[in-house]
Design goal:
By secondary structure, the chain is α/β, with parallel strands linked by helices. The chain is built from 6 helices and 5 strands, in the order αβααββββααα.
């Protein structure tokens, strides 16, 4: 995959109520060349990357996400996964804003998903409430049904193009 710049480590302000997928990704960041040969390695790297997650809570977040992944696959299909904790944010934490991190893996990884495709794109969902989590997950899955978006994402585009395409599609589809 092409070499992309490292994501900014600055924290952004919390999203507005009912934030768009694009706004949530703007907070969680877009991250390239995530290493890992097995699912736990990938998920650990994914949890370490977002600037919206304070370093002291990352080990507990990894544990919560791995427990959820161990219960049932978070695979969406088409080489895409959407891991998240069992309970959104495992309690509303005031120090973590609702966000979605978008990650492009350095190499596809077999997560053992039903469709048999290896994962190369990960959306990490960190949302404050169950209602927000379910609403956002449904909207994300709806967007990812668009073959044009999944094909576009598999090209590993740069951040401005991703945010622009998400804005355009959210207006057209949701």
């Amino acid at each position: 995959p092409p070499r992309h710049p490292a994501p900014s480590r600055s924290r952004r302000s919390p999203p507005p109520r009912g934030a768009s997928i694009r706004e949530l990704i703007d907070i969680g960041g877009i991250h390239y060349r995530i290493a890992g040969a097995r699912p736990p390695e990938v998920l650990r790297a994914v949890v370490e990357a977002p600037p919206c997650v304070p370093a002291p809570v990352r080990p507990a977040l990894f544990k919560a996400i791995w427990e959820r992944e161990s219960l049932c696959s978070s695979g969406i299909g088409k080489g895409i996964a959407a891991p998240h904790p069992i309970v959104p944010m495992w309690a509303p934490r005031s120090d973590i804003p609702s966000c979605i991190g978008l990650f492009f893996l350095e190499h596809p990884v077999d997560f053992g998903y039903v469709d048999g495709e290896k994962v190369s794109i990960v959306f990490l969902l960190l949302l404050k409430t169950l209602q927000e989590h379910l609403r956002t997950l449904a909207r994300l899955v709806r967007l990812l049904r668009e073959d044009s978006l999944t094909s576009f994402l598999h090209e590993v585009p740069l951040r401005p193009a991703i945010l622009s395409e998400l804005s355009r599609l959210e207006k057209a589809v949701l």
